[in-house]
Structures are given as C-alpha cells and as structure tokens.
Design brief:
- It is a single chain.
- This protein has about 180 residues and is mainly alpha-helical.
- The chain has a domain of about 90 residues.
- It is built from seven helices and two strands.
- Strands 1-2 form a two-stranded antiparallel sheet.
- Helix 3 crosses helix 5, helix 3 crosses helix 6 and helix 5 crosses helix 6.
- The protein is elongated and about 85 Å long.
C-alpha cells in the first residue's frame, strides 16, 4: 500500500501572505461535502460592491501601483517606510472612488506596505546601478581626438589612486563642459 502525500505549492501572492489565510483552523474542519452556496445563482446583475474578502491579487496589485505614484519624495528622503505607509493610506481612500475604503485591515495593510517597501528598495537599487553605470562610461574616442589626447593618456579607474598623479591628465565635468587638467 503506497501512501502518496500531495503538498500544494504556495503561490507568492498578496492573498497567500495574509495571516488570515496562513493561520486559520481549516485543517481541523476538513469536511469534504460542503455546500458552497446556499442558493442557486440565477444570473442576475451583480452589484458593483465588493466585500473585503472578494478582492483578488490583481486588485491589490493595482492598489499598490497607485500608492507608489502617491509617495511623497520629501517624506521618502527622511523615512521610506513612513512615506510608503502614508501613500498607501491615501491610495486606500482615493483609489477607484474608495473601493478599498474601510476594507483593508491591519494585517493586509502590513503585507501591502512590505511589498511597497520591497519594490521601492528594488527601484532604488536600480537607480543606483544606473548612476554607477553612467559614471563608469568611458570617454568617447572622438571627444579625445577633439581634445588632442590619445586613449592611453587618460588613466583607467584602477590606475587612479587617492593621490593626484603628477603629469597625468584628468577630466573634470563642470557646468561649462569637460575640462582637462594636467
């Protein structure tokens, strides 16, 4: 007799992270013959109202995207978490004419803020990499030719030390343009 254990995959989504979903008493009440609905659906027009338990991941995803557009940059400069919380509070009240107003409890709010903070940190890391990539761009050969320099005259990043090397030209970027100092 072979016993097969099937473990469902937990999908990384907003709803799967809610404590109401992860910490419940469902395994203790395992009835297989449940009545799903108490009456048969007649196909009538459904009201546009959504209850707190009727939201799906796409709804929460659109709420988080809307909240990210509302982040106050001045507040984010001092404390990113507080800026994300503030933006999410505003988004809950204003998104889709108050669709989420009064329907996001503390646990759901915490999960949404964590996802916003993670997304903000990811975008901040991407911006930092972009700045570093811009700083590491080599000087184009036609610019060196206009300045009367050869590519070997400009030291590479590994060659530059804390001290200023005498006799080696250095490029400085200013408001007026690029200046070559010897």
């Amino acid at each position: 007799m072979n016993i097969m254990v099937i473990v469902p995959r937990v999908i990384q989504s907003y709803i799967a992270q809610f404590p109401e979903v992860t910490h419940n008493a469902y395994p203790y009440f395992n009835y297989d013959n449940r009545v799903v609905e108490e009456r048969v659906e007649r196909g009538d027009f459904k009201a546009p109202y959504k209850g707190a338990n009727e939201f799906v991941d796409e709804d929460y995803d659109s709420l988080v995207k809307h909240a990210q557009t509302l982040i106050n940059p001045i507040l984010a400069k001092y404390n990113a978490r507080v800026a994300n919380e503030d933006a999410l509070h505003m988004a809950i009240r204003s998104f889709s004419n108050g669709l989420f107003d009064g329907k996001v409890n503390a646990n759901r709010f915490e999960v949404l803020v964590k996802s916003m903070v993670a997304e903000t940190e990811k975008t901040a890391g991407e911006r930092k990499r972009e700045r570093e990539r811009k700083q590491d761009q080599p000087v184009k050969p036609h610019i060196l030719k206009q300045l009367g320099l050869k590519p070997g005259d400009i030291p590479r990043k590994q060659q530059i030390t804390q001290k200023v090397q005498k006799g080696v030209p250095h490029l400085l970027k200013t408001d007026k343009g690029t200046i070559v100092k010897k």
